């Protein structure tokens, strides 16, 4: 196989949670362009439908809440229906309540850890048998700068993202013997709905850009190459890793 062909995903099926917007949508676009059929999963049916229509052929939308653990069996079955069992699962769904330490509620704590830490494990486990049978699979989680750095008003979010990094390693150890790799992308600062409060403050956004080696904040297209690499045969011998796509923020 020619080296560039190893980055192709023709004939593969990818499921992307949080695929209707932001980082999830950008990764879904990349995987689709690389040849995969893509199933977008999220809570907002209208947003998902628009995103799937924008992708064009071999794209589908499945509404569901990954934080509802009791509904994951049904959600997994619905996600398999359009194109068959996924070869690739991308866990991009997430939220950040941005509460100060003394304002964190039990409900907000549970919601953040359920959607960003529990859901990647339990949903992956639902979808693992088909990957195991094929002897090939890709699981991509979305970590964060907060997997390794503390930031204000984000204790539950940081706890979840720190857990994502270790969950990724643990799943890699457990499932590598089945031909399934598990890796993570840790984005720096990118303009999304989740980071809206950050980019609404121009001075703060400028300070964050200055804290990178490249002198700028991220653009969603910056994530696409890393996603294709970690979801394709090009990364066959890479698992249990967290790739920081942060312009050198963590290196500086």
What does this structure look like?
Strands 3-2-1-4-5-6-7 form a seven-stranded parallel β-sheet, sandwiched between helices. The chain has a single domain, classed as Rossmann fold (3-Layer(aba) Sandwich). The chain is an alpha/beta fold and 252 residues long. The longest helix has 29 residues. The mean pLDDT is 95.
Short description:
This protein is of the alpha/beta class and 252 residues long.
Classify the helix fraction into a percent range.
40-55%
Instruction: Let me know the number of strands.
Output: 7
Strand content range: 15-25%
Largest beta sheet: strand ordering: 3-2-1-4-5-6-7
Name of the top-level CATH class: Alpha Beta
The profile of the biggest β sheet is: 7 strands, parallel
Please state the structural category.
Answer: alpha/beta
Tell me the domain tally.
1
Describe the protein's topology.
Elements: E1 13-17, H1 22-33, E2 37-42, H2 45-55, E3 59-63, H3 72-80, E4 88-91, H4 106-134, E5 137-142, H5 155-175, E6 180-187, H6 196-199, H7 202-210, H8 224-231, E7 242-245
Parallel strand pairs: 1-2, 1-4, 2-3, 4-5, 5-6, 6-7
Keywords, please?
7-stranded parallel β-sheet, 41% helix, 252 residues, Rossmann fold, alpha/beta
């Amino acid at each position: 196989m020619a080296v560039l062909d190893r980055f192709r995903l023709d004939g593969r099926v990818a499921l992307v949670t949080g695929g209707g917007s932001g980082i999830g949508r950008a990764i879904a676009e990349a995987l689709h362009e690389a040849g995969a059929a893509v199933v977008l999963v999220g809570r907002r049916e209208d947003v998902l439908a628009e995103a799937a229509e924008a992708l064009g052929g071999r794209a589908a939308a499945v509404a569901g809440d990954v934080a509802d653990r009791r509904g994951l069996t049904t959600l997994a079955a619905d996600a398999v229906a359009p194109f068959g069992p996924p070869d690739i699962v991308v866990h991009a769904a997430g939220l950040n309540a941005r509460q100060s330490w003394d304002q964190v509620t039990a409900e907000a704590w549970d919601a953040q850890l359920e959607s960003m830490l529990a859901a990647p494990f339990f949903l992956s486990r639902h979808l693992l048998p088909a990957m195991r049978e094929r002897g090939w699979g890709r699981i991509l989680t979305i970590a964060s700068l907060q997997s390794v750095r503390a930031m204000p008003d984000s204790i539950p979010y940081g706890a979840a993202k720190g857990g994502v990094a270790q969950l990724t390693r643990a799943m890699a150890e457990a499932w590598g013997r089945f031909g399934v790799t598990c890796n993570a992308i840790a984005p720096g600062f990118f303009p999304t709905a989740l980071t809206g409060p950050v980019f609404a403050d121009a001075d703060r956004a400028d300070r964050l850009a200055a804290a990178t080696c490249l002198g700028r904040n991220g653009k969603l297209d910056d994530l696409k190459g890393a996603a294709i690499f970690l979801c394709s045969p090009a990364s066959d011998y890479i698992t249990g890793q967290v790739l920081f796509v942060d312009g050198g923020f963590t290196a500086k």
